[in-house]
Write a structure and sequence with these properties.
Elements: E1 5-16, E2 19-30, E3 34-38, H1 45-53, E4 60-65, E5 78-81, H2 93-103, H3 108-121, H4 137-149, E6 155-159, H5 167-182, E7 186-191, H6 194-200, E8 203-208, E9 211-217, H7 218-222, E10 228-233, E11 249-251, E12 254-258, H8 264-273, E13 278-284, H9 288-296, H10 298-305
Helix pairs in contact: 2-3, 2-4, 9-10
Bound molecules: adenosine-5'-diphosphate and magnesium ion.
Length: about 325
Amino acid sequence: MVGGLAIEAKGLFKAFDGKAAVDGIDLAVPEGSIYGILGPNGAGKTTTLRMLLGIIDPDRGSSTILGRAHPLEAAKLVGYLPEERGLYPAMKTKEAVAFMGALRGLPLGVGRERAEGLLRDNGLGDYVDKPIKSLSKGMAQTVQLLGTIVHRPRLIVLDEPFSGLDAINQGRLETLIRDEAAGGATIIFSTHVIAHAERLCERIAIIAGGRIKFEGSVADARDRLRPQVRLRTKAADGPWRETIPANARQEQGLWQFELPRGGIEPLLRGLLDGGAGIEELSIERPGLHEAFVAIAGEEAAREMADHGGTEIVA
Ligand SMILES: Nc1ncnc2c1ncn2[C@@H]1O[C@H](COP(=O)(O)OP(=O)(O)O)[C@@H](O)[C@H]1O
Ligand SMILES: [Mg+2]
Protein backbone atom coordinates (compact mmCIF):
# COMPACT_ATOMS: atom_id res chain seq x y z
CA MET A 1 0.00 0.00 0.00
CA VAL A 2 2.65 2.50 -1.06
CA GLY A 3 1.01 5.90 -1.18
CA GLY A 4 -1.69 4.75 1.23
CA LEU A 5 -2.30 5.62 4.83
CA ALA A 6 -0.62 3.78 7.68
CA ILE A 7 -3.13 5.31 10.09
CA GLU A 8 -6.50 6.84 9.47
CA ALA A 9 -8.66 8.07 12.32
CA LYS A 10 -12.03 9.74 12.20
CA GLY A 11 -13.70 11.53 15.06
CA LEU A 12 -11.86 9.73 17.87
CA PHE A 13 -13.39 10.69 21.18
CA LYS A 14 -12.63 9.54 24.71
CA ALA A 15 -13.78 10.91 28.02
CA PHE A 16 -12.54 10.02 31.51
CA ASP A 17 -14.86 10.76 34.43
CA GLY A 18 -17.13 12.76 32.16
CA LYS A 19 -14.32 14.98 30.87
CA ALA A 20 -13.15 14.73 27.25
CA ALA A 21 -9.48 13.73 27.02
CA VAL A 22 -9.63 13.35 23.24
CA ASP A 23 -12.35 15.45 21.72
CA GLY A 24 -12.93 14.35 18.14
CA ILE A 25 -9.60 13.79 16.44
CA ASP A 26 -9.04 13.02 12.75
CA LEU A 27 -5.65 11.77 11.60
CA ALA A 28 -4.20 10.63 8.31
CA VAL A 29 -0.63 9.35 8.51
CA PRO A 30 0.90 8.59 5.11
CA GLU A 31 2.65 5.23 4.75
CA GLY A 32 6.43 5.63 5.02
CA SER A 33 6.35 9.04 6.68
CA ILE A 34 7.68 10.36 9.97
CA TYR A 35 4.72 11.91 11.72
CA GLY A 36 4.80 13.95 14.93
CA ILE A 37 2.05 14.58 17.43
CA LEU A 38 2.87 17.75 19.32
CA GLY A 39 1.10 19.05 22.34
CA PRO A 40 1.55 20.04 25.97
CA ASN A 41 1.06 17.67 28.90
CA GLY A 42 -2.52 16.49 29.16
CA ALA A 43 -3.30 17.37 25.53
CA GLY A 44 -4.50 13.83 24.80
CA LYS A 45 -1.49 12.46 22.92
CA THR A 46 -1.08 9.23 24.89
CA THR A 47 -4.82 8.54 24.90
CA THR A 48 -4.91 9.05 21.12
CA LEU A 49 -2.01 6.64 20.54
CA ARG A 50 -3.57 4.05 22.83
CA MET A 51 -6.86 4.19 20.94
CA LEU A 52 -5.05 3.84 17.61
CA LEU A 53 -3.31 0.75 18.96
CA GLY A 54 -6.49 -0.81 20.30
CA ILE A 55 -5.25 -0.70 23.90
CA ILE A 56 -8.23 1.39 24.97
CA ASP A 57 -11.57 1.70 23.20
CA PRO A 58 -12.76 5.06 21.96
CA ASP A 59 -16.20 6.18 23.12
CA ARG A 60 -16.84 7.35 19.57
CA GLY A 61 -15.04 7.42 16.26
CA SER A 62 -13.05 4.85 14.35
CA SER A 63 -9.58 4.23 13.05
CA THR A 64 -7.58 1.85 10.90
CA ILE A 65 -3.91 0.93 11.15
CA LEU A 66 -2.13 -0.56 8.17
CA GLY A 67 -5.51 -0.89 6.52
CA ARG A 68 -7.07 -2.98 9.30
CA ALA A 69 -10.10 -1.85 11.23
CA HIS A 70 -9.09 -3.99 14.22
CA PRO A 71 -5.67 -2.76 15.37
CA LEU A 72 -4.78 -6.01 17.10
CA GLU A 73 -4.92 -7.80 13.74
CA ALA A 74 -1.88 -5.75 12.77
CA ALA A 75 -0.12 -6.36 16.11
CA LYS A 76 2.85 -8.21 14.63
CA LEU A 77 3.46 -5.41 12.16
CA VAL A 78 3.47 -2.74 14.84
CA GLY A 79 6.11 -1.67 17.36
CA TYR A 80 5.09 0.40 20.38
CA LEU A 81 7.19 2.25 22.91
CA PRO A 82 4.80 3.24 25.70
CA GLU A 83 5.23 6.37 27.76
CA GLU A 84 5.64 4.26 30.90
CA ARG A 85 8.89 2.40 30.38
CA GLY A 86 9.91 -0.75 32.15
CA LEU A 87 12.10 -3.80 31.67
CA TYR A 88 12.91 -6.74 33.90
CA PRO A 89 15.97 -5.66 35.91
CA ALA A 90 17.56 -9.12 36.10
CA MET A 91 17.17 -9.92 32.41
CA LYS A 92 20.23 -9.67 30.21
CA THR A 93 20.12 -6.80 27.77
CA LYS A 94 20.16 -9.09 24.73
CA GLU A 95 17.41 -11.26 26.22
CA ALA A 96 15.27 -8.22 26.96
CA VAL A 97 15.36 -7.17 23.31
CA ALA A 98 14.64 -10.72 22.09
CA PHE A 99 11.84 -11.05 24.67
CA MET A 100 10.12 -7.92 23.39
CA GLY A 101 10.40 -9.24 19.84
CA ALA A 102 8.89 -12.56 20.93
CA LEU A 103 5.86 -10.66 22.29
CA ARG A 104 5.31 -9.56 18.69
CA GLY A 105 5.82 -13.00 17.17
CA LEU A 106 9.57 -12.98 16.44
CA PRO A 107 11.30 -16.34 17.17
CA LEU A 108 13.65 -15.93 20.15
CA GLY A 109 16.73 -17.17 18.26
CA VAL A 110 16.29 -14.59 15.53
CA GLY A 111 15.62 -11.97 18.16
CA ARG A 112 18.85 -12.72 20.03
CA GLU A 113 20.85 -12.52 16.83
CA ARG A 114 19.34 -9.21 15.80
CA ALA A 115 19.62 -7.89 19.36
CA GLU A 116 23.42 -8.23 19.32
CA GLY A 117 23.71 -6.19 16.12
CA LEU A 118 21.23 -3.56 17.25
CA LEU A 119 22.92 -3.15 20.63
CA ARG A 120 26.33 -2.85 19.02
CA ASP A 121 25.11 -0.29 16.47
CA ASN A 122 23.66 1.81 19.26
CA GLY A 123 26.65 2.07 21.53
CA LEU A 124 25.65 -0.79 23.84
CA GLY A 125 28.00 -3.49 22.53
CA ASP A 126 29.64 -3.89 25.94
CA TYR A 127 26.30 -4.52 27.62
CA VAL A 128 24.92 -7.34 25.45
CA ASP A 129 25.23 -9.91 28.26
CA LYS A 130 24.88 -7.54 31.21
CA PRO A 131 21.64 -7.32 33.20
CA ILE A 132 19.30 -4.38 32.64
CA LYS A 133 19.90 -3.22 36.21
CA SER A 134 23.54 -2.42 35.36
CA LEU A 135 22.43 0.15 32.74
CA SER A 136 21.75 3.84 33.19
CA LYS A 137 18.16 5.03 32.74
CA GLY A 138 18.91 6.37 29.29
CA MET A 139 20.63 3.14 28.21
CA ALA A 140 17.68 1.07 29.45
CA GLN A 141 15.38 3.29 27.45
CA THR A 142 17.50 2.68 24.34
CA VAL A 143 17.25 -1.07 24.98
CA GLN A 144 13.48 -0.79 25.21
CA LEU A 145 13.46 1.12 21.97
CA LEU A 146 15.50 -1.59 20.26
CA GLY A 147 13.06 -4.16 21.60
CA THR A 148 10.31 -2.08 19.99
CA ILE A 149 11.81 -2.42 16.51
CA VAL A 150 13.56 -5.82 16.66
CA HIS A 151 10.69 -7.59 14.82
CA ARG A 152 11.03 -5.01 11.99
CA PRO A 153 7.58 -3.48 12.30
CA ARG A 154 6.02 -1.55 9.43
CA LEU A 155 4.46 0.92 11.83
CA ILE A 156 6.43 2.23 14.81
CA VAL A 157 4.54 4.14 17.50
CA LEU A 158 6.68 5.99 20.02
CA ASP A 159 5.16 7.85 22.97
CA GLU A 160 7.55 10.61 24.11
CA PRO A 161 10.61 8.66 22.94
CA PHE A 162 13.05 11.53 23.52
CA SER A 163 12.25 12.26 27.14
CA GLY A 164 14.76 10.76 29.54
CA LEU A 165 17.56 10.62 26.95
CA ASP A 166 20.71 12.74 27.00
CA ALA A 167 21.74 14.72 23.93
CA ILE A 168 23.89 11.93 22.49
CA ASN A 169 21.17 9.32 22.77
CA GLN A 170 18.57 11.77 21.46
CA GLY A 171 20.78 12.18 18.39
CA ARG A 172 21.06 8.40 18.06
CA LEU A 173 17.30 8.07 18.29
CA GLU A 174 16.82 10.66 15.55
CA THR A 175 19.18 8.67 13.32
CA LEU A 176 17.39 5.44 14.13
CA ILE A 177 14.00 6.98 13.30
CA ARG A 178 15.34 8.29 9.98
CA ASP A 179 16.88 4.89 9.15
CA GLU A 180 13.65 3.04 9.90
CA ALA A 181 11.72 5.46 7.69
CA ALA A 182 14.31 5.07 4.92
CA GLY A 183 13.74 1.31 5.19
CA GLY A 184 10.04 1.84 4.50
CA ALA A 185 8.55 1.90 8.01
CA THR A 186 6.05 4.53 9.13
CA ILE A 187 6.93 6.29 12.37
CA ILE A 188 4.50 8.21 14.51
CA PHE A 189 5.77 9.76 17.73
CA SER A 190 4.44 12.14 20.34
CA THR A 191 6.55 14.86 21.81
CA HIS A 192 6.41 18.07 23.74
CA VAL A 193 9.82 19.09 22.40
CA ILE A 194 9.20 21.08 19.26
CA ALA A 195 12.77 20.86 17.94
CA HIS A 196 12.63 17.08 17.45
CA ALA A 197 9.47 17.31 15.40
CA GLU A 198 10.86 20.23 13.41
CA ARG A 199 13.97 18.26 12.45
CA LEU A 200 12.35 14.90 11.80
CA CYS A 201 8.77 15.16 10.66
CA GLU A 202 7.26 15.45 7.24
CA ARG A 203 3.91 16.07 8.82
CA ILE A 204 2.68 17.01 12.26
CA ALA A 205 -0.51 17.31 14.23
CA ILE A 206 -0.59 19.94 16.95
CA ILE A 207 -3.07 19.03 19.65
CA ALA A 208 -4.19 20.89 22.73
CA GLY A 209 -7.17 20.24 24.96
CA GLY A 210 -7.96 17.03 23.08
CA ARG A 211 -8.43 18.80 19.76
CA ILE A 212 -6.37 19.16 16.61
CA LYS A 213 -5.22 22.75 16.20
CA PHE A 214 -3.15 22.11 13.12
CA GLU A 215 -2.47 19.20 10.78
CA GLY A 216 -0.07 19.38 7.88
CA SER A 217 3.55 19.73 6.93
CA VAL A 218 6.09 21.54 9.11
CA ALA A 219 6.56 23.98 6.22
CA ASP A 220 2.81 24.72 6.14
CA ALA A 221 2.84 25.42 9.87
CA ARG A 222 5.78 27.79 9.50
CA ASP A 223 4.16 29.50 6.53
CA ARG A 224 1.33 30.58 8.81
CA LEU A 225 3.64 33.34 10.02
CA ARG A 226 5.21 36.08 7.96
CA PRO A 227 9.01 36.31 7.81
CA GLN A 228 10.47 38.71 10.38
CA VAL A 229 12.64 41.66 9.41
CA ARG A 230 15.26 43.10 11.76
CA LEU A 231 16.83 46.36 10.76
CA ARG A 232 19.33 48.81 12.22
CA THR A 233 19.98 52.12 10.53
CA LYS A 234 22.65 54.83 10.90
CA ALA A 235 20.13 57.64 10.57
CA ALA A 236 17.68 58.14 13.40
CA ASP A 237 15.08 59.79 11.23
CA GLY A 238 14.39 60.77 7.64
CA PRO A 239 12.07 60.12 4.72
CA TRP A 240 12.95 56.39 4.91
CA ARG A 241 10.81 56.07 8.07
CA GLU A 242 7.73 56.02 5.82
CA THR A 243 8.77 52.65 4.41
CA ILE A 244 8.77 51.03 7.86
CA PRO A 245 5.38 49.43 8.66
CA ALA A 246 3.33 51.34 11.22
CA ASN A 247 3.20 48.36 13.60
CA ALA A 248 7.00 47.90 13.72
CA ARG A 249 8.62 47.61 17.17
CA GLN A 250 11.86 49.35 18.00
CA GLU A 251 14.14 48.20 20.78
CA GLN A 252 17.51 49.77 21.42
CA GLY A 253 17.70 51.02 17.86
CA LEU A 254 16.69 47.69 16.33
CA TRP A 255 13.52 47.70 14.26
CA GLN A 256 11.51 44.50 14.10
CA PHE A 257 8.49 43.92 11.90
CA GLU A 258 6.78 41.41 9.62
CA LEU A 259 8.02 41.40 6.06
CA PRO A 260 5.50 43.59 4.17
CA ARG A 261 3.26 41.80 1.67
CA GLY A 262 4.97 43.70 -1.15
CA GLY A 263 8.26 41.93 -0.34
CA ILE A 264 11.71 43.21 0.52
CA GLU A 265 12.47 45.21 -2.62
CA PRO A 266 10.16 48.22 -2.11
CA LEU A 267 11.38 48.35 1.47
CA LEU A 268 15.03 48.32 0.43
CA ARG A 269 14.41 50.98 -2.20
CA GLY A 270 12.72 53.19 0.39
CA LEU A 271 15.59 52.75 2.83
CA LEU A 272 18.28 53.43 0.23
CA ASP A 273 16.57 56.37 -1.43
CA GLY A 274 15.51 57.78 1.92
CA GLY A 275 19.08 57.83 3.28
CA ALA A 276 18.59 55.35 6.15
CA GLY A 277 22.16 53.98 6.06
CA ILE A 278 21.55 50.26 6.61
CA GLU A 279 23.82 48.90 9.36
CA GLU A 280 22.14 45.57 9.99
CA LEU A 281 19.41 43.76 8.10
CA SER A 282 18.05 40.26 8.33
CA ILE A 283 14.92 38.50 7.13
CA GLU A 284 14.15 35.35 9.06
CA ARG A 285 11.51 32.73 8.46
CA PRO A 286 9.89 31.86 11.80
CA GLY A 287 10.60 28.37 13.08
CA LEU A 288 8.12 25.75 14.22
CA HIS A 289 8.31 27.07 17.78
CA GLU A 290 6.97 30.48 16.74
CA ALA A 291 4.34 28.78 14.58
CA PHE A 292 3.34 26.61 17.54
CA VAL A 293 2.84 29.70 19.70
CA ALA A 294 0.66 31.25 17.02
CA ILE A 295 -1.38 28.06 16.55
CA ALA A 296 -1.75 26.70 20.07
CA GLY A 297 -1.14 29.82 22.19
CA GLU A 298 1.51 31.04 24.61
CA GLU A 299 0.28 28.92 27.48
CA ALA A 300 0.47 25.64 25.55
CA ALA A 301 3.90 26.64 24.25
CA ARG A 302 5.22 27.30 27.77
CA GLU A 303 4.19 23.82 28.84
CA MET A 304 5.96 22.28 25.88
CA ALA A 305 9.50 22.92 26.95
CA ASP A 306 9.97 21.77 30.49
CA HIS A 307 8.13 18.56 31.27
CA GLY A 308 9.81 15.17 31.06
CA GLY A 309 7.64 12.15 30.40
CA THR A 310 6.98 9.49 32.98
CA GLU A 311 10.03 7.30 33.16
CA ILE A 312 9.89 4.16 35.18
CA VAL A 313 12.82 1.93 34.44
CA ALA A 314 12.73 -1.42 36.19
N1 LIG B 1 -6.74 6.22 32.32
C1 LIG B 1 -7.10 7.47 32.60
N2 LIG B 1 -8.02 7.73 33.56
C2 LIG B 1 -8.42 9.00 33.82
N3 LIG B 1 -7.95 10.10 33.18
C3 LIG B 1 -7.03 9.91 32.23
C4 LIG B 1 -6.55 8.60 31.88
N4 LIG B 1 -5.66 8.71 30.88
C5 LIG B 1 -5.55 10.04 30.61
N5 LIG B 1 -6.38 10.75 31.41
C6 LIG B 1 -6.57 12.22 31.37
O1 LIG B 1 -6.80 12.58 30.02
C7 LIG B 1 -6.14 13.77 29.67
C8 LIG B 1 -5.19 13.50 28.50
O2 LIG B 1 -4.12 12.68 28.97
P1 LIG B 1 -3.00 12.08 28.03
O3 LIG B 1 -3.64 11.44 26.86
O4 LIG B 1 -2.12 11.25 28.88
O5 LIG B 1 -2.27 13.42 27.54
P2 LIG B 1 -0.77 13.61 27.02
O6 LIG B 1 -0.21 12.30 26.61
O7 LIG B 1 -0.90 14.57 25.88
O8 LIG B 1 0.00 14.23 28.15
C9 LIG B 1 -5.44 14.24 30.92
O9 LIG B 1 -6.27 15.18 31.54
C10 LIG B 1 -5.32 12.98 31.74
O10 LIG B 1 -5.29 13.27 33.11
MG1 LIG C 1 1.47 11.37 27.23
